[in-house]
Request: fold
Amino acid sequence: MTNEECFNAWAPEEGVWSRWAKPSLFTQRPGISSPALRSWPESHEYLWLSQGSRTALVVDLPGVESVETGMAMARRGYRPIPLYNTSAGPSALVNVAELIEALASGAMALRDLTLSPDAPPAFLIDADRMRPAVPSNPGSYDNRWVVFPQDFPSGTFLRSRGIADLVVLHDRGGVQEDLAHVLLRWQEAGIQMRALAPGDVSPRELTVKKPSWFRRAWYRAIIVAGLRRNNAGGFGSVIPTAGGGGYG
Reply:
């Protein structure tokens, strides 16, 4: 299976939500005909989510756990949409190697599922996107990343597809500030919010509070200024040494 075929399995051309899928990590793995198969967790933990539901999901869980949850949701009729807008590199601050392999294996499994082009979305992001696993030193690859409202469909578009409510699955760190900018816009558009955290039996109501610089024109510029972009459009480049130059 080539990298392009892997990406198309996650974001088929006919899919309503495919335009939001990020190709960044799918370009990071050599094209291999048979990615390693893996066992995916069962979806029994999500019985509160009825089959045929028009509830959208945001899966904001650490690394591979977000892919595993996306695959569990796929077996319940959801279209998992990978939004990992980062890249791999030497001495990377955020470890994405296992995430890349999980996406390749997930592509194999998705090919065997029959999902409606209009299946409700499960947007997948990595809760560790701003949590470096190693110290930030010159020569390290800074691939920390964030999400922006433009990375997701608008509340108006969600409602046009029959989606009026949404559940955020997050880890113990809670709803991160970059995601709060997205959720508050949806909340203002009338999308009902719920959240599911570790230990919750079922989702609880979520009211998103106004994050810093909400709807300020310079918000994106301020956030991006503290991160590193690459030529492919995603996040990630080497931290330059003193007196040296970087790339990206």
